[in-house]
Design brief:
This protein is an alpha/beta fold. 45% of the residues lie in helices and 20% in strands. The chain binds iron/sulfur cluster. Iron/sulfur cluster is lined by residues 10, 13-14, 17, 19, 21, 63-65, 98, 122. Iron/sulfur cluster binds at residues 10, 13-14, 17, 19, 21, 63-65, 98, 122.
């Protein structure tokens, strides 16, 4: 099982971000958050008998900005989890953080000492003009300093988050950021294209014509050339937006893509457990009230076998390992080639997909258009499902 802990606070909101978090200009986490989080852990441990759960193999503090927590607070949460759940001895404990808050004196060494084994840093760019445009609070120099501090504190598993397809960015600019990131020698890199999300300040600016993102040809060059550069520097692409050195794939995200159950804690956290999915209220007060009154899984939805099948196809096709044909057949009770063989053959001819006896996987060009490919594939799979569903006779 995976445990996700949402820390819904940031020093300041970035204009492009649609994740749930509230601005905390003084960086002080409200007391009710930590108390409710510990309570939520206790209540879930009581509600889920240990024997019904696989050991926790990953704990992920995401946000928001988890590096606003004090190390002692992170330690309390980890201790409570260890007391209440079976935790695998090699459990990966990741904490996301921003360079400005990670640079607080002593924090990194204390985080390492309390059990955090992996840091995921929100670097986003190593170009100060781009960082200012994104509204980030750190500079490129500060990113470099924090990587050095993290190494000195004993972190042997670092990930840097970067963004591409930024307004005004050129393929050369993106490749320059990637080279500098590789020079910092992290074990893992994430590279997400900026997407303009509904309701964000960036959406308003984009509609006003203030943010011109690179065109299709430039974006394609950024993705394909960026990928080639990273592979050349020893970072294997294992998911559309994720690259790692041998042995350093993010265990938590791999679990999501492989359909492992996860329990989410904290406001707005999503959980998927035993065939049901729910989301904690995206509101600190309402979430805390729910926890206090023991209302743990509000409005859970059952994941139907058909929904699970499509989700598996979508998630697996994001990964370089692709979708195992035997896995599809086990979930669907049918062969994928029977359901969509002609379409898959056409994708192979177009150079968007590779297929062998065991699996199908998108090529790098296919990953560029993964959303369109997945939607088209879904249409065919749904048609195949309908064709096999016995039709009901007319009502008498
Ligand atoms: S720091 Fe991260 S989570 Fe917070 S607003 Fe910025 S992008 Fe969103």
């Amino acid at each position: 099982m995976l445990l996700y802990i949402h820390v819904p606070f940031c020093r300041r909101r970035c204009g492009y971000c649609a994740f749930h978090s509230q601005a905390l200009p003084d960086g002080r986490i409200p007391e009710v958050y930590l108390a409710s989080l510990l309570e939520e852990i206790r209540r879930w441990a009581e509600a889920l008998p240990r024997s019904s759960l696989d050991p926790v193999e990953s704990i992920f503090f995401g946000g928001g900005t988890p590096s606003l927590l004090e190390a002692a607070q992170v330690g309390l949460v980890l201790e409570e989890i260890a007391r209440r759940f079976a935790v695998a001895p090699d459990c990966e404990c990741t904490l996301e953080g921003n360079p400005d808050s990670l640079a607080r004196p002593g924090l990194l060494a204390d985080l390492r000492a309390c059990g955090i084994s992996r840091l995921s840093m929100g670097v986003q760019s190593l170009d100060d003009r781009e960082l200012a445009m994104l509204g980030r609070l750190h500079t490129a120099a500060q990113c470099r300093e924090v990587v050095a501090l993290a190494r000195r504190a004993g972190f042997a598993n670092l990930s840097l988050d970067l963004m591409w397809c930024l307004p005004g960015q050129t393929p050369q600019g993106w490749l320059a950021t990637l080279k500098q990131a590789c020079d910092l020698a992290p074990e893992h890199l994430s590279a997400y294209a900026l997407s303009i999300e509904e309701g964000t300040p960036f959406e308003a600016r984009s509609l006003a014509g203030e943010l011109a993102q690179p065109g299709e040809a430039e974006a394609e060059a950024m993705f394909l050339e960026g990928r080639a550069l990273l592979e050349d520097r020893g970072y294997a692409q294992y998911e559309i937006s994720n690259y790692a050195r041998e042995g350093f794939r993010c265990r938590h995200n791999l679990g999501y893509w492989q359909g492992v159950d996860y329990l989410g804690l904290g406001p707005s956290a999503v959980s998927t457990l035993n065939g049901r999915r729910w989301t904690d209220p995206p509101d600190l007060e309402r979430w805390a009230q729910n926890v206090a009154s023991g209302r743990l899984a509000e409005d859970p939805e059952a994941i139907t076998p058909a929904a699970r099948l499509l989700e598996t196809v979508m998630l697996r096709l994001r990964t370089a390992d692709g979708l195992p044909l035997a896995g599809y057949a086990a979930l669907a009770g049918r062969s994928l080639l029977e359901d969509a063989g002609a379409f898959l053959g056409e994708l192979c001819r177009q150079g968007l997909l590779v297929m062998d006896k065991k699996r199908i996987a998108l090529t790098p060009r296919g990953m560029l258009v993964s959303s369109a490919v997945t939607s088209e594939l879904f249409l065919r799979l749904e048609r195949a499902e309908l064709a096999r569903t016995p039709t009901q006779g007319p009502r008498q």
